[in-house]
Amino acid sequence: MENIEIAKLLSETADLMEIAAEDGFRIRSYRNAAAVIEGYGERLASVRADPARKLTDIPGIGKGIAGVIDEIETRGSFDRRDELLERYPPTALEMLHIQGLGPKTIALLIEELRITTLDDLERACKEQRIRGLRRLGAKHEEKILRGIEQYRKSAGRYLLNFADAMAAELTAYLAATPGVEKVTPAGSYRRGKETVGDLDLLVTGPGAQAALDRFVAHPKVSEVLGHGENKASARVGVEGLQVDVRALPAESFGAAMQYFTGSKEHNVALRQRALKQGYSLNEYGLFRLDDESRVAGETEEGIYAALGLPFIPPEMRENQGELDAPVPALLELADIRGDIHMHTRESDGRATLDEMAAAARALGREYIAITDHSKALAMANGLDEKRVLDFAARVRALDHEALGIRVLSGIECDILKDGRMDLDDEALASLDFVVASVHSYMNLSREEMTDRYLACLENPYVKTIGHPTGRVLLHRDAFVYDFETVAAAAAKRGVAMELNASPERLDLHATLLRIAKSKGVRFTISTDAHHPRHLENMKYGVKMARRGWLTKADVLNTLPYEEFISSWAK
Ligand code: DGT
Ligand code: CA
Ligand code: CA
Ligand code: ZN
What we know:
Blueprint: H1 3-19, H2 24-38, H3 44-49, H4 63-75, H5 79-87, H6 91-95, H7 103-113, H8 118-126, H9 138-154, E1 158-159, H10 160-175, E2 182-186, H11 187-190, E3 195-196, E4 198-204, H12 208-216, E5 221-227, E6 231-236, E7 241-248, H13 253-261, H14 264-276, E8 279-282, E9 285-288, E10 294-296, H15 300-306, E11 338-339, H16 353-362, E12 367-373, H17 385-396, H18 400-403, E13 406-414, H19 425-429, E14 433-437, H20 446-457, E15 464-465, H21 483-493, E16 496-500, H22 510-518, E17 523-526, H23 538-547, H24 561-566
Parallel strand pairs: 4-7, 11-12, 12-13, 13-14, 14-15, 15-16, 16-17
Antiparallel strand pairs: 1-3, 2-4, 5-6, 6-7, 8-9, 9-10
Helix pairs in contact: 1-2, 1-5, 1-7, 8-9, 10-12, 13-15, 20-21
The structure holds 2'-deoxyguanosine-5'-triphosphate (DGT), calcium ion (CA) (2 copies) and zinc ion.
């Protein structure tokens, strides 16, 4: 059995153990082992076959797990998994992905209501059979129904950072095949879409077909879906992301990149334009209709140029007017100078101010704002007024020269239900930077939520609205409110809107960025980092900004520090 299959069995079993409320330590050891095995460079089968070696020599694999692996290699499963699968239907694993359903509730639903499919679960909610079960009420029924809907919409899609890691690994791997000249990602991933359905990779060079053979033999491939002369498709990783790899001749590589980057809608519009100009466009090139001669195909630029168009950046290829408007000079990662929304151990972050500052400096940032949570988020140990004043004084006393980066004292202040700020004016006034965010009462009516944001914009200390729609990708929909009205008010009040660069949020998204920009809004792009590593997520924010056609001038944290500080004068 391949490592990836073993890893998958362990990881699924850990999920089932969670539903069975087994010991947390044990569950973690299964998850840990699954991660180790997935990333292990050599087949476990060959370690087992070698009398000089033991599975337990691999860090992360103890005696218990080694025994389980032996069992898996001998009969394809193991006792604990079989027991759990007898108790719980396979749908239990799916149910874990539904927002609002924890392992305890799932166990209850299965044991008390004999729920075995998502349809069962949906019916039980609609027939109001969930209320009355221990701890559960009508609210849970609504929440589960919303969760099911969300799950059905998001099933089979993956976050951009996950696709990014897989794309980087596979691109490097394929590029190392002798005779491969270029490996390029295409599809929604190249367009920087916030979630991807599958990953599309294009390969060219005399070794391209050998690269397909190598691809299907990659240790992370869990299932080969197809393997022909010019294309191979497979599922990779425990998560089962589909990857399509295509081998292409050099003379049509540009045409293929254009075609397979999409979007489909952009391609349709482009083909229509080509036809009007007397050409046909397909994945092999741009051809004259009269004599079928090839006009372009080696590069994407050549194709756009032959059609009288500038090069259209992949992020703009969504058929949202990009063929008819001048192409703006889109924002680039190198334009970003500051990162002005991040957390430390003061609230729910994982590192200290010094550690965050050092990591941000290493990424070339010139300034950061530390914006821990305010007291309404008690679970995150949010700051009250006294702690805010102390913190502001502490930051004022920092030796910024020695730190090598400017640190702004800030807060991510909760917007209360009625739109008031969670902290008093004195506390807010002591800080350099205030992000105002909604983290509670997320299901208010459209009117109430609109009024809440409008009231918040009246506060003179608020500099930017954090993650303005509250969406959590694949999990939670955006809040419902009159976005245009709020954006117009923000522009008028000189309050910016945040583009939260966390790959779980990417909030605002492209459409709303364009609407807000049309209302005169300026933007901040921040990582909302809770760990130094998250500071690298800025690149996803920049991708989304490009999808929203933003330029450097639209984004305040592209300004040098002094100008950034003075840009908030109202
Ligand atoms: P995804 O994978 O759902 O996130 O979205 P895409 O855009 O990556 O879609 P995918 O993987 O099905 O196909 C990759 C690109 O190939 C797509 O963006 C445009 C092109 N393509 C695929 N099928 C068609 C088609 O039937 N017509 C046209 N014009 N283009 C297509
Ligand atoms: Ca795709
Ligand atoms: Ca595809
Ligand atoms: Zn937040």
